[in-house]
């Protein structure tokens, strides 16, 4: 049992203690996104952590939108977030919940605080409130409106609700301690006037609760036992505890903070992604160069790979950043036994086998994945004219070049041994056609009578088909860093997207459905793009190359 306790992360240890001491009868967690943008890889850690804890303790996982700020919220984001959470495999309990569903109870809670003398209506402007708040080294100054009577505050707050005042004219503040060393406790604003239509409640409300007031109330109403959030909320925890304590909730939730998941050299800020979209540098929030969950899905990452990545990163209190190659390692590990290994030529040059019968089509039996026989085999057409990768031929090769050059014999994967006899060139000296002869006795490409050092893949020029393939690099120019120091813009890598229009693939790949994944032999892992692929005309995105710069740390 001791080893089991040591292997648990610090949040699990806290929950175990709470259960042991009788503070928690049922573990209830939640994922509470604000619907003002698309989720990114960092959110995946929070989703999987909260869902995983509820599952581990046979508890309950709630999906709740914190829609308390209607200025930035859209139904589009609600829909995208639900899709992402479902795709990651996190199954929430019952219906999707919304903070706006509790607006009546939040208003009543604010009234209770006023009646207890714990909240007051303040007329200071936003600038004055900031000025009165003080600094990290100096205490704040009390508002001149702090000691209004309960009756006056109740009347003013009701007038706020009834639309008597303009935006920013009055706010409701908690009455706590203007001298607190924690600035969040210096009479924070808990309600503001905002004459804005809400995406769910319409024009019913013209006052909206602040997140720090709304969030603990939502958790308490839902019976959340452990409010798991990221480290930036650590300084807000005293206010969270103050709200649930002053409102006298039974079995109040407990807030626990953990370190965010940061990836180096990626763009996650909503403002920056919005600008990339508006400037048409990317084709939307799901552009495969981004690390939104929608973008990672379109790029070809799997829920299993993201979960493996989150597990590798772990749950700690210490903040740090992770390199992108770790995420790439996880998708390679996930796909290496799942994905069929197909032949696709990305930079084609024609190979003509001069002694092969004209017009003959021969079907080669090819294993779909040599490491996983359960994936079976397929038939691949072989013909006189083929395409091979341009880099697989050199007229004057350097030493240790074992692929195709005049006089050299190579293996055409799963087909025949062929010997290069020469090439044709255009007026600029570019190779246009390579010529070779084949040895009929070496069918299947596994002939043991003699050894060849080079093996290359191929696609039939007459039976194969051209497709579009997209190769991705980081959207960020890694040498310059993410942000331009002068104007704060993104340092965009001009080579982040390469579109190849005339790649040749074997016929089987034309049947690919959106999000189907394959290994293109020697070229990496690819997926059929979910947005631009059409029936019989897939567009392929490269998920990741075959080589990794990431090394798993020794255990």
TrEMBL record:
EC number(s) given by UniProt: 6.1.1.18
Which GO molecular function entries does the Swiss-Prot or TrEMBL record give? ligase activity
The record places the motif ('HIGH' region) at 33-43
Q: What is this protein called?
A: Glutamine--tRNA ligase
The UniProt record lists the keyword Protein biosynthesis: yes
Q: Highest taxon of the source? A: Bacteria
Grouped into one coarse class, the protein's main location is: cytoplasm
Q: Which Gene3D superfamilies does this chain map to?
A: Glutamyl-trna Synthetase, Domain 2 (1.10.1160.10), Glutamyl-tRNA Synthetase, Domain 3 (3.90.800.10), HUPs (3.40.50.620), Ribosomal Protein L25, Chain P (2.40.240.10)
User: Signal peptide location in the record?
Assistant: none
Q: What does the entry list as the binding residues for ATP?
A: 34-36, 40-46, 230
Quote the subcellular location field of this record.
Cytoplasm
The entry marks the following residues as binding L-glutamine, namely 66, 211
Q: Report the source organism.
A: Lachnospira intestinalis
């Amino acid at each position: 049992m001791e080893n089991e306790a040591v292997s648990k992360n610090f949040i699990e240890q806290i929950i175990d203690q709470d259960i042991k001491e009788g503070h928690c009868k049922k573990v209830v967690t939640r994922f509470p996104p604000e619907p003002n943008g698309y989720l990114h890889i960092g959110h995946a850690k929070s989703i999987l952590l909260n869902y995983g804890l509820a599952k581990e303790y046979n508890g309950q996982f709630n999906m709740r939108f914190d829609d308390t700020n209607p200025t930035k919220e859209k139904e589009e984001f609600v829909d995208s977030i639900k899709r992402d959470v479902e795709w990651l495999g996190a199954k929430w309990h019952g219906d999707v919940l919304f903070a706006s569903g509790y607006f009546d109870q939040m208003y009543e809670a604010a009234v209770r605080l006023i009646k207890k003398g714990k909240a007051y209506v303040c007329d200071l402007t936003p600038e004055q409130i900031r000025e009165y708040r003080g600094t990290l080294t100096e205490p704040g100054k009390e508002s001149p409106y702090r000691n209004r009577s309960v009756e006056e505050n109740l009347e003013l707050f009701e007038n706020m609700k009834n639309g008597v005042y303009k935006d920013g004219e009055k706010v409701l503040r908690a009455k706590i301690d203007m001298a607190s060393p924690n600035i969040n406790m210096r009479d924070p604003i808990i309600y503001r006037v905002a004459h804005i239509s809400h995406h769910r409640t319409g024009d019913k409300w013209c006052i909206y609760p602040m997140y720090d007031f709304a969030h603990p109330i939502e958790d308490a109403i839902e019976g959340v036992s452990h409010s798991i959030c990221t480290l930036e909320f650590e300084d807000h925890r005293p206010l969270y505890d103050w709200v649930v304590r002053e409102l006298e909730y039974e079995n109040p939730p407990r807030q626990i903070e953990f370190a965010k998941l940061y990836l180096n050299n990626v763009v996650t800020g909503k403002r920056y992604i919005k600008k990339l979209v508006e400037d048409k540098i990317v084709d939307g929030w799901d552009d495969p160069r981004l690390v939104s969950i929608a973008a990672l899905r379109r790029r070809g990452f799997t829920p299993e790979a993201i979960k493996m990545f989150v597990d590798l990163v772990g749950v700690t209190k210490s903040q740090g950043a992770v390199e992108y190659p770790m995420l790439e390692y996880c998708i390679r590990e996930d796909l290496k036994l799942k994905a069929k290994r197909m032949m696709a030529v990305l930079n084609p040059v024609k190979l003509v086998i001069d002694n092969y019968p004209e017009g003959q089509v021969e079907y080669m039996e090819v294993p779909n994945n040599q490491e996983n026989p359960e994936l079976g085999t397929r038939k691949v057409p072989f013909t006189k004219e083929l395409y091979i990768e341009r880099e697989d031929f050199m007229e004057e090769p350097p030493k240790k070049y074992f692929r195709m050059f005049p006089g050299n014999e190579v293996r055409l994967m799963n087909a025949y041994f062929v010997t290069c006899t020469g090439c044709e060139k255009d007026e600029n000296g570019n190779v246009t056609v390579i010529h070779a002869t084949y040895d009929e006795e070496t069918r299947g490409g596994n002939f043991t009578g003699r050894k060849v050092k080079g093996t290359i893949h191929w696609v039939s020029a007459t039976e194969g088909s051209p497709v579009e393939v997209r190769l991705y690099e980081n959207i960020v120019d890694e040498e310059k860093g993410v942000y331009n120091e002068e104007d704060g813009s993104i340092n965009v890598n001009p080579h982040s997207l390469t579109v190849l229009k005339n790649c040749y693939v074997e016929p089987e790949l034309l049947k690919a459905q959106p999000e189907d994944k394959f290994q293109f032999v020697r070229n990496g892992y690819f997926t059929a793009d979910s947005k631009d692929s059409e029936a019989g005309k897939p567009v392929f995105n490269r998920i990741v190359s075959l080589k990794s710069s990431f090394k798993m740390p020794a255990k």
